[in-house]
Amino acid sequence: MHIQGSCHCNNVSFQLDWEPDPSEIPARACGCTFCVKHGAVWTSHPSAKLVVTVNDRSLVSRYWLGTATAIFHVCARCGGVPVVTSEIDNHVYAAVSVNAFNNVPETLLQRSVTNFDGESVDTRLARRKLRWIASVQWAELG
Predict the structure, then answer these.
(1) What percent of the chain has pLDDT over 90?
(2) Which of 8, 53, 102, 142 is deepest in the core (most CB within 10 A)?
């Protein structure tokens, strides 16, 4: 399945190639205060391929939470947060916001609430290596 997504103004967009076509897509609403305040609901598939395109890098802010292990890529123009990345052992992993999807039927989304409070940094990074998208490319246009 070829999933397209973007922030509201399309400054940050992505193409996610998820093979084989999923019968459902896990959609995890994170319970941290950043995600709650932004309405973030994330998904990832370890064998998917992600290409993120940024039209104007000067309009993208990077926000780190307390552990500084994940970077939220926030569009400064519209406030959208379509992608979060984590660099682990010199490799970038990512998750994408299902709320940024442009072409996925709601019926495919298997929504749940997650909470990672109390998770150690080592456990968090190991989980991301196992579950997040491992093939991440950036294409910056400006």
Answers:
(1) 82
(2) 53
